[in-house]
Amino acid sequence: MTDRLATRFSKCRAEGRAALVTFVTAGDPTPGDSAAILDALVAGGADIVELGMPFTDPMADGPAIQLANLRSLAAGTKTSDILAIAVAFRQRHPDVPLIMMGYANPMIRRGADWFATEAVKAGVDGVICVDIPPEEDQELGPALRAAGLHLVRLATPTTDAARLPAVLHGASGFLYYVSVAGITGKQQAQQASIENAVGKLKAATDIPVAVGFGVRTPEQAAAIGRVADGVVVGSAIVDLVGSHGHQAAPFVQDYVASLRAALNTAETVA
Amino acid sequence: MTQASTTPLANSFRAQPDENGHFGQFGGRYVAETLMPLILDLDRHYRAAMADQAFHDEFDWLMKHYVGRPSPLYYAQRLTETLRESAPEGRGAQVWFKRDELNHTGAHKINNCIGQILLAKRMGKTRIIAETGAGQHGVATATVAARFGLPCVIYMGARDIERQQPNVFRMKLLGAEVVPVQSGAKTLKDAMNEALRDWVANVHDTFYIIGTAAGPHPYPELVREFQSVIGREAREQIQELAGRLPDLLVAAIGGGSNAIGLFHPFLDDADVAMLGIEAAGHGIETGEHAASLAGGTPGILHGNKTFLLQDADGQIAEAHSISAGLDYPGIGPEHSWLKDIGRVQYESVTDTEALDAFQLLCRTEGIIPALEPAHAIAAVARKARAMNRDQIILANLCGRGDKDIFTVADALGVAM
User: Fold this and answer.
1) ipTM computed for the complex
2) Where is the composition biased (Polar residues) (chain B) (predicted)?
3) Closest to A57 (Cβ–Cβ): which among B36, B37, B193?
4) What homologous superfamily does CATH list for A4-265?
């Protein structure tokens, strides 16, 4: 299997810019809307797509993504629908890295091996699981690695130097730096604290570092893109889906294009 | 894992969890990375507190002079005799109650809150948060926050706020801010989600007082430790008053903190049987219940692996019980383990059976129980009639029923 994530980060680096990582919740507002919204992310210039798996109890998420989870579940989204959305995405976009992101319980419900196998069959490249820290890696990590999937780990402002090696051990694809101690989509971190943290992380690992949580404007994305390998935007896109529903795709595309344009013109430090 | 054959480990049911918080396959620390360093920090402070006699002394002093412990152990003679009337010849066990409804604030919840606020103080935290369903844990948390002069925010589902106005007012009188939770089904599990969201955003100054023996390690262990005062007292009292250990312990289970508090000091007493009672709501077969062990499957929620009410995709189901304190789709991980290994038996009791038992205790003993222990009392009635007269059942009367009279009146069709 070609490593789509590594290929894409290399391509972005060659172009002298950070990768644009975009998140939407699968099946929001309905499973039938997901294809058009995912295509809009790619058309707008997203490099990497994170497909959120809706969960009844998204305790690390702020109001925007909580509501997206509720909309999707209310529309009847099942795990089988999410996998079907991924399969169809992979057929339309053979080269765009696709990450599944969500909470542990829906991922392990039928067994971690089942989930890993189905994710590979669906053309998924990696998995982010919010509530499986390194200490509980055995729950999902071995199954993902055996299937050839990346396990993308999260580092946060509370992850200190003593703890960082444990987080990096077994991490692959990229490291997701959660720039705010808090929930998704609320406050934004000070640029100086992000730069400081990214510097420490990049000194500790060779895998790319992407920064997310609270990134909303092209200016913020550009500022982060100067120091990080990737910029993650989620809640702001999910808000557009929330306000425009079935007609969200063109709004999503325009917004993502504005982020991408900002990244294109931002000069990277490296 | 290997162990030297010359040094066998003690064969004890009381040695769980392991250092990573696992009770067999259950328990653990399934939290976002942001919280992980805090959980580890809490674990360090908890172990240091346990090794510090001054911590135990302060806890014991507050238990005695503020909470009113030890709570009495009471032989329910009239209830025993009443049950014997409908039992086969020679049957009808003696029923004893651990009177934790006589504690300050009216339930066992305060034991845990005292322990946790002492930890918060020790850790230098300056702000307290908690979740609550019916409001009992919220009231107990607001109580200790007032006692220790710390600001306190209680998360409570908007639907529960409507149903539990007296407790909302109590919390406010005690100086707490009560935040209505509008997400999800607006009940206890959503309140717990919201408390976790607060905690993750206020990691530096905030202590989260979890109300039951669940959540990420070390919460199930430390809540058990603070609630085990129930079982330690009961074990001493029954030997003093009856001259021997009981034959059967009975306790109601939502998250399971009063039950584990009673059971744990007896786990290695091989002749003491134990029965945990889940809420069967309208009946397990209707799907409208809160019996995670009887009707659930293992999964991960709120930081631990345990039995959960969930669908085939791992989405969490809504629980139902007439008792708001049992109305939760999960259960503490140690109970999942004790069920798995067979040390404790678990059964369930419906809303209707609990209402009958509620009235039975009112009339035979002059005690209005909370709806939570009313579930345990229904099971006591069921078991006592099948046991011999010289046998002893010890049940935890973990809360008083003042808070429930409106719910009971409504269920009995009485307009108030």
Assistant:
1) 0.96
2) 1-14
3) B193
4) Aldolase class I (3.20.20.70)
